[in-house]
């Protein structure tokens, strides 16, 4: 079936009937653009239009399909040929419509999947549901779009595509969890419990667990447990952001001398209470450190947060800075002072953490990080380590080497 030849034949006979494309289109109930497409051979008229079109042009359907006038003696042969061509054309149209529907279904499936990751929050169960529904819709469209006669093969390919797509989504979800610290979309159970003062939300996935510690607080952090280690072992819990303040991060600022102002500033920025802003001063003569925090001590001390932070900061600073001898922490409501000798004597297991000038990170985690959740421990050790001066006005002087965090 030569569409270009048929198109030229339609145009020729339309002109013989002294009709414009718009007039012919009006008589057939189509747009003049459709008539233009027929005549340029870009597409064929719909089968339902063959009879009214031929009637308007004064030709037979057989002549329309041949694209020319047919002599009487050739009519039968052309008729048989055109019947076969029409059947083939009809089947092609059916296949094209089937493909179009399949593509529409696949696009709908993709939109469902996209909404799972874009529209809904990770906490919502709708995220996983929409991605599953979208995947099933997409695979259904793919099944009907496949040009494979063997139904078993089509089904096998479709099932394989379903699991491949879900695997891809699962990998993307895992990357999002580890990179952006958010709950996993694909999880089969969520539980909430409290350990000391820490609210812990646990998300159980098929291949890993995610622990959201200090949930719904400024010091919230995530632990992704791929080996499911913490189902039988204690969780590493601290009241601060572990990624920022934990020993695994702050150990990079270990130094032999207090005089490196940049290093001290970076270390203080990682430690708790830095979120309130601070300035610091270094006493090079007596190897002391003075830190002024931009908050009131009692204002930020909910659940002993200031006490825990100051104890943690003091121990961390003395362990990490070899020649640091004394620390003074100033607040608008008071000041807290301590020194190395007092902390070494009062803080339990201090010398188990520091062996041969090296910090044992596992021991630091056991004796410092985890201990910050023990309210009784913090209260007892804090009283031994710090001397408090209420309502003391800071004697802080801005020197050239002072670092200020706004």
TrEMBL record:
Protein name: DUF4825 domain-containing protein
Gene3D superfamilies assigned: lambda repressor-like DNA-binding domains
Coiled coil (residue ranges): none
Family matches, as CDD domains: HTH_XRE
Key word Manganese present: no
One Pfam family from the record: HTH_3
Keywords annotated in UniProt: DNA-binding, Membrane, Transmembrane, Transmembrane helix
Superkingdom per UniProt: Bacteria
InterPro entries reported for this sequence: Cro/C1-type_HTH, DUF4825, Lambda_DNA-bd_dom_sf
Ranges for domain HTH cro/C1-type: 10-64
Transmembrane segments: 102-120, 126-143, 155-172
